[in-house]
From TrEMBL:
<keyword id="KW-0804">Transcription</keyword>
<dbReference type="InterPro" id="IPR019471">
    <property type="entry name" value="Interferon_reg_factor-3"/>
</dbReference>
<protein>
    <recommendedName>
        <fullName>IRF tryptophan pentad repeat domain-containing protein</fullName>
    </recommendedName>
</protein>
<dbReference type="InterPro" id="IPR036390">
    <property type="entry name" value="WH_DNA-bd_sf"/>
</dbReference>
<feature type="region of interest" description="Disordered">
    <location>
        <begin position="1"/>
        <end position="27"/>
    </location>
</feature>
<dbReference type="InterPro" id="IPR017855">
    <property type="entry name" value="SMAD-like_dom_sf"/>
</dbReference>
<dbReference type="InterPro" id="IPR008984">
    <property type="entry name" value="SMAD_FHA_dom_sf"/>
</dbReference>
<dbReference type="InterPro" id="IPR001346">
    <property type="entry name" value="Interferon_reg_fact_DNA-bd_dom"/>
</dbReference>
<dbReference type="InterPro" id="IPR036388">
    <property type="entry name" value="WH-like_DNA-bd_sf"/>
</dbReference>
<keyword id="KW-0805">Transcription regulation</keyword>
<feature type="domain" description="IRF tryptophan pentad repeat">
    <location>
        <begin position="28"/>
        <end position="136"/>
    </location>
</feature>
<dbReference type="InterPro" id="IPR019817">
    <property type="entry name" value="Interferon_reg_fac_CS"/>
</dbReference>
<feature type="compositionally biased region" description="Basic and acidic residues">
    <location>
        <begin position="1"/>
        <end position="13"/>
    </location>
</feature>
<dbReference type="Pfam" id="PF00605">
    <property type="entry name" value="IRF"/>
</dbReference>
<feature type="compositionally biased region" description="Gly residues">
    <location>
        <begin position="14"/>
        <end position="27"/>
    </location>
</feature>
<keyword id="KW-0238">DNA-binding</keyword>
<dbReference type="Pfam" id="PF10401">
    <property type="entry name" value="IRF-3"/>
</dbReference>
């Protein structure tokens, strides 16, 4: 076709979305996962991450009537999505950049995984773009990520990020029986955050660790953050849903306990942004083997403590602070979920 810009212009169409890529046993990729692959590929000019945490990304958004518009470059991503979804058959269907762009825009707007960040989009410049935020199941899967800092007394002895949907297990190294079962059944699916070997002379720590052998399970789900105590040793906690603020809250053994509620966090974040209410609480403190908090005359440090942060909550609050500082005169808008 003589009027076909895809054949008239030089160069090769980026192939990040051409054809139907294999998505493994899960079937075709969701838009979120497909887009992340395209961003990471570097195949599309102007399509890139906007922040180090990879929760914001920029999509070139030039109108076909704008000066300097080139279909091969400026509609390449939209075309790739149409091909991937089976809405455009190369060599057979008419090239239709306007329709491709509309399809991707509608898909982004309908998806619960994205929110357009209008205050960061730039549509009136020579190379316009839109900015979107990934608001669920982040680019690396950061909806179920948990960041854990482990303390012996006041000393930070381990720091880890659990990146699995199954969460993580906090506890000592597996006993011989558990190790044998692992060899038979395969490694556990949850991440393992091991308690380090105590320093020489730390007799109280050495006495406590055997009572924590089966550890504590922690995981994040769309509804919030949950825990299940499996060890014989007692575990106490403090967090957004703790029933008591001034006295200890114990986790019952082999019973699932919700530590953070996502809906409540989002409601409190919205109240913070719109009405100046206090920041929502999202950090969770776990204390192993000793009551926490203790009497007022005792130091807050304990033999073993874990400070846990659900990364989705931390990043949303960080984004809210950034928005307030970058536009102090504007009335902040809460993210939409």
């Amino acid at each position: 076709m003589a009027g076909d810009p895809w054949r008239r212009e030089e160069g090769k169409v980026p192939d990040g979305g051409g054809g139907r890529p294999s998505a493994g046993p899960g079937g075709p990729l969701r838009l979120r996962d497909w887009l992340v692959l395209q961003i990471e590929s570097g195949s599309y000019e102007g399509l890139r991450w906007e922040d180090e945490g990879k929760t914001l990304f920029r999509i070139p958004w030039k109108h076909a009537a704008k000066q300097g518009y080139r279909a091969r470059r400026d509609a390449a991503l939209f075309r790739a999505w149409a091909i991937y979804k089976g809405k455009h058959l190369e060599g057979t269907d008419k090239e239709d950049p306007s329709t491709w762009k509309t399809r991707l825009r509608c898909a982004l707007n309908k998806s619960v995984d994205f929110r357009e960040v209008r205050e960061r989009s730039q549509l009136d410049i020579s190379n316009p773009y839109k900015v979107y935020q990934i608001v669920s199941d982040s680019a690396h899967g950061p909806g179920c990520w948990l960041h854990v800092r482990l303390f012996y007394g006041a000393e930070l002895v381990r720091e880890a990020t659990a990146r699995t949907a199954e969460g993580c297990r906090l506890g000592p190294r597996a006993a011989a029986a558990d190790a044998a079962a692992e060899r038979l059944l395969g490694p556990p699916r949850e991440a393992q955050v091991r308690f380090p070997e105590p320093p020489p002379g730390a007799r109280a720590l050495r006495r406590l660790l055997p009572h924590l052998q089966r550890g504590l399970l922690l995981w994040a789900a769309p509804e919030g953050v949950f825990a299940k105590r499996r060890c014989r040793g007692r575990v106490y906690w403090r967090g957004p849903l703790a029933p008591h603020r001034a006295r200890p809250n114990k986790l019952e053994r082999e019973r699932t306990c919700q530590l953070l509620d996502t809906r409540r966090f989002l409601e409190e974040l919205q109240a913070h942004l719109q009405d100046g209410h206090p920041e929502p609480e999202y950090q969770i403190h776990l204390c192993f083997g000793e009551e926490y908090p203790g009497p007022p005359d005792q130091p807050q440090e304990r033999l073993i403590m874990a400070h846990v942060e659900p990364i989705f909550a931390r990043e949303l609050l960080r984004y809210a602070k950034h928005h307030r500082h970058s536009a102090p005169g504007a009335r902040p808008q809460a993210p939409h979920f």
